[in-house]
Write a structure and sequence with these properties.
Family: Belongs to the COQ4 family.
Protein name: Ubiquinone biosynthesis protein COQ4 homolog, mitochondrial
Catalytic activity: a 4-hydroxy-3-methoxy-5-(all-trans-polyprenyl)benzoate + H(+) = a 2-methoxy-6-(all-trans-polyprenyl)phenol + CO2
Number of strands: 0
Oligomer: single chain
Shape: globular
Distance between the termini: 42 Å
Largest sheet: none
Number of domains: 1
Function: Lyase that catalyzes the C1-decarboxylation of 4-hydroxy-3-methoxy-5-(all-trans-polyprenyl)benzoic acid into 2-methoxy-6-(all-trans-polyprenyl)phenol during ubiquinone biosynthesis.
Cofactor: Zn(2+)
Length: 225
């Protein structure tokens, strides 16, 4: 999924893919393939910075060395953990939505194996962040998480996703997002630890509230109906 599917693009081809993906993603934010391509073709400088931070972190270096994958065969044991644990919360999140960790798209446009892995890791831990921040998977929740992701990684794709998402809000959603979710997401993304340097799988067995406190994570606000 990381190495064999990669495609080498020259600068003009990268620009063409980026522009085409951006236009397509704005027209249809549900196109995960276009969002993925946009993230890869515009995100190289951001992923390079993330890679350096991971190399400077003991836990991040362990992730780079062992290259864990968030796929069913590697995280399936989370379904057997005690209810209060981070792993069990992740399993509930996935099971309640009938999601599979195997559904993530491969990385195609990263130049090196290291950058391809970092891009894949960012893609695969997305649902860990949903679990930790307590965000739903509707348009509001996904847009809020993209704000957190931007604060953590400075990926241009995250900003475009927020623009595309908010453009599709109705009046009530827009009010809720900018009154409750957006200011929380900006602060939450800054306050927490460097989440790309966390070896999540080694913390599955730990209490969810404990890992949230240790990583400085403030869950999303409860929005009054």
């Amino acid at each position: 999924m990381i190495g064999g599917a990669r495609v080498h693009l020259n600068r003009w081809q990268q620009t063409a893919v980026a522009v085409g993906s951006a236009v397509g993603a704005l027209l249809d934010p549900r196109r995960a393939d276009l969002i993925a391509a946009l993230g890869e073709t515009t995100g190289k400088p951001a992923f390079e910075r993330v890679l350096e931070r991971m190399k400077n972190s003991p836990e991040g270096r362990a992730v780079l060395l062992e290259r864990p994958r968030v796929i069913s065969s590697k995280v399936g044991h989370a379904w057997d953990l005690p209810e209060n644990t981070f792993g069990a919360a992740y399993a509930r999140f996935m099971g309640s939505r009938n999601f599979s960790p195997d559904d993530r798209l491969p990385v195609r446009f990263m130049e090196t194996d290291e950058l391809a892995y970092v891009a894949m890791r960012a893609r695969e831990i997305h649902d860990f962040w949903h679990t930790l921040f307590g965000l739903p998977t509707n348009l509001l929740g996904e847009s809020a998480l993209k704000v957190v992701e931007f604060e953590q990684m400075y990926l241009p794709m995250c900003l475009l996703s927020v623009v595309g998402g908010t453009a599709r809000f109705n009046e009530k959603q827009r009010m809720v997002f900018f009154k409750h979710y957006f200011p929380w997401a900006v602060q939450a993304g800054v306050r927490c630890t460097d989440l790309m340097c966390v070896y999540y799988e080694q913390h599955f067995h730990e209490d969810l509230d404990d890992v949230r406190r240790r990583w400085g994570i403030v869950p999303a606000p409860n929005i009054p109906k």
